[in-house]
Design goal:
Blueprint: H1 15-26, E1 30-33, H2 40-46, E2 52-55, H3 59-73, E3 77-81, H4 85-88, H5 91-99, E4 104-110, H6 130-135, E5 140-143, H7 150-162, E6 169-174, H8 175-179, H9 201-213, E7 217-221, H10 223-228, H11 231-241, E8 245-247, E9 262-264, H12 270-278, E10 281-285, E11 304-309, E12 322-325, H13 328-340, H14 355-371, H15 376-388, E13 394-397, H16 401-409, E14 418-420, H17 430-440, E15 446-451, H18 452-455, H19 461-467, E16 472-478, H20 483-493, H21 506-512, E17 517-519, H22 525-534, E18 539-544
Parallel strand pairs: 1-2, 1-3, 3-4, 4-6, 5-6, 7-8, 7-10, 8-9, 10-11, 11-12, 13-14, 13-15, 15-16, 16-18, 17-18
Helix pairs in contact: 1-2, 1-7, 3-5, 3-17, 9-13, 11-13, 15-16, 15-22
Length: 569
């Protein structure tokens, strides 16, 4: 009898290998995801590739991780999921990626080709028209129905995701196409050329004229500045114009927080809204002036508006403007050059406040207003988080009261260092997003901030953090419910319903995953958080605290003298 151990037949390349080869040829190094029955062909190919795989426990969380990875790297984050339920579980994450312009390339499997489009075969996970579900959420939808189509479909999806405005895309490939042996040559080179979006020269020239001749120019800088890496151009233009700069919540870090021209991010504030309204020329760059950026659509500009926006659907969608359909970086660079070539504008006249003085005056009035609301605890906690967080660290924030504070009052210290779900506002973003940011740069600590309600969306990912030893510290502010909804309902109806929650012992739960955890207090928060961030691997810090939101000013709260932006040269 022979004792020779039979050897496995040599592997024949299949459609899954073509997917991996295509991603590698385009420059991918990491993929996120969760396997499923129809996607096994692509996951089997993954082990033969050089790509790093980060697997999460819930598809929606995998999408959030890919979102933050894409934002952190300014690149494409591939996301691998299966058919039907697995695909559908990504929708909330892809909605956030669309709202936040994150280039997530979601690759989902499909039922075998014969079963697509009718439900007549009764395949497990089958949808009548799976791709149609995604068309209203993602930037573009792609399908590969044969092996030879896979490389081109991957390249087209990659190019779409990275063409400004960046955004998520969906590519689906049937199960039998992924599994079938192929004769297609190995993919060694593949090109995707995202289209650039420069400004039209005549529009840039007119915008520069309006700004150079303005007596009270102001700039509102949105997330498009950060995504374009246009911080240097923004700073140069603001200083050339001596124009105060407000950053939106998505644009935090686009302009130095402590700069004399920085109005920071107090957008939910009537003083700031009035300042923006009083500009004779307001430059809006990288923002569609949506609900949050317009102080819940109370903003009413009295001067000219110049808007730079890469998303054509958002250009002049809320306010009439001189619209410049362009990416923020080339547009701002063109304005800097045009403004430099123009003579300095005339002074506004004697007795006018300098722009820097107007900025200082506004920030002092905001400070006095907040200080008058008895919110010392909230300000102290936010300050403790800032003091504990290293300057080069990234923070990812869930939809929780402390995050609402951070949008307005937190100094991100640098661009692209604060990420939140304020684009679409879904719960559960903070912790899985932090995992994605940590995968992008494991040498730096990452902070995740959640409330206890949002934390329950992501508890399973403690296993992911532990498995990959990711340096993420998770701050859970435990107030026993959906705190921001509690405030909204109490304010609107005098009583909150469905907001109070039973919850676990988060410290014991984290420790059951092998993740170190500590229960802290407002007095010990800075010390405990700093210690956790300094340690390698994941950790959890639980802060029992019931926080309140600051009250924004409204139109009828404005000073009687109409104080807004003092006239400046």
């Amino acid at each position: 009898m022979s004792t020779t151990t039979p050897t496995a037949a040599p592997h024949r390349r299949n459609g899954g290998d073509l997917v991996m080869e295509s991603l590698t040829a385009l420059g991918a190094s990491t993929v996120f995801g969760l396997p499923g029955q129809h996607a096994l062909g692509v996951f089997d190919a993954l082990r033969r590739s050089e790509l790093r795989y980060v697997g999460l426990r819930v598809e929606n969380n995998a999408g959030f991780a890919a979102d933050a990875y894409a934002r952190t790297t300014h690149g494409v984050a591939p996301l691998l999921v299966s058919t039907g339920p697995g695909a559908l579980m990504t929708l909330a994450a892809l909605q956030e990626a669309a709202a936040g312009s994150a280039a997530v390339l979601a690759i989902g499997s499909q039922v075998p080709l014969a079963g697509i489009g009718g439900g007549r075969h009764g395949y497990l996970h089958e949808l009548t028209d799976q791709s149609a579900v995604f068309r209203g959420v993602v930037k573009s939808v792609h399908t590969a129905r044969t092996a030879s189509q896979i490389p081109s479909a991957v390249a087209a999806a990659w190019e779409s995701a990275l063409t400004v405005p960046h955004g998520p895309v969906w590519l689906e490939i049937p199960q039998d196409v992924l599994l079938a042996p192929v004769e297609v040559p190995q993919v060694k080179e593949l090109h995707a050329a995202p289209r650039e979006l420069p400004p039209r020269p005549e529009v840039a020239a007119e915008a520069a004229r309006l700004l150079a001749e303005a007596r009270r120019p102001v700039i509102l800088a949105g997330g498009g500045v950060v995504r374009a890496g246009a911080e240097a151009e923004l700073l140069a233009l603001a200083e050339a114009l001596r124009a105060p700069v407000v950053t939106t919540f998505g644009g935090k870090g686009a302009f130095p927080w402590e700069h004399p021209l920085s109005l920071r991010s107090w957008l939910e504030d009537r003083y700031t809204t009035e300042f923006l309204e009083d500009a004779d020329t307001l430059l809006v760059v990288g923002s569609g002036l949506g609900e949050l950026s317009s102080n819940y659509h109370t903003f009413r500009p009295r001067g000219r508006v110049v808007q730079i926006e890469a998303d054509l659907g958002k250009l002049e969608s809320n306010h009439a403007a001189l619209g410049m359909h362009a990416d923020a970086r080339p547009a701002l660079a063109a304005l800097v050059k045009e403004v430099a070539d123009r003579p300095a504008r005339e002074s506004a006249g004697a007795g006018s406040a300098a722009p820097e003085d107007a900025v200082a005056d506004l920030l002092e009035r905001v400070r006095q207003r907040i200080d008058g609301q008895g919110l010392d605890l909230e300000q102290r906690i936010l300050a403790s988080v800032r003091e504990a967080l290293p300057d080069d660290a990234v923070s990812c924030w869930d939809m929780t009261i402390l995050a609402y504070w951070a949008w307005s009052a937190f100094d991100a210290r640098r661009p692209n260092a604060l990420h939140s779900a304020q684009g679409s506002g879904g719960l559960g973003y903070g912790f899985p997003a932090a995992l994605g940011a940590a995968v992008a740069d494991p040498a730096r600590p990452v902070l995740a901030v959640s409330g206890d309600g949002g934390a329950m969306y992501s508890i399973a990912e403690l296993a992911t953090a532990r498995q990959y030893a990711l340096p993420v510290t998770w701050l859970i502010v435990d107030d026993g419910g959906y705190g921001i909804l509690r405030e909204y309902m109490n304010d609107a109806f005098g009583e909150a319903t469905a907001t109070e929650l039973a919850r676990p012992d988060f410290v014991a739960l984290a420790e059951s995953f092998g993740v170190p955890a500590v229960r802290t207090s407002p007095e010990r928060l800075r010390e405990d958080l700093a210690a956790a961030l300094a340690e390698p691997g994941p950790s959890v810090v639980v802060l029992p605290a019931r926080l309140r939101m600051f009250a924004p000013t409204h139109l009828d709260d404005a000073p009687a003298d109409g104080a807004g932006a003092p006239e400046a040269p």
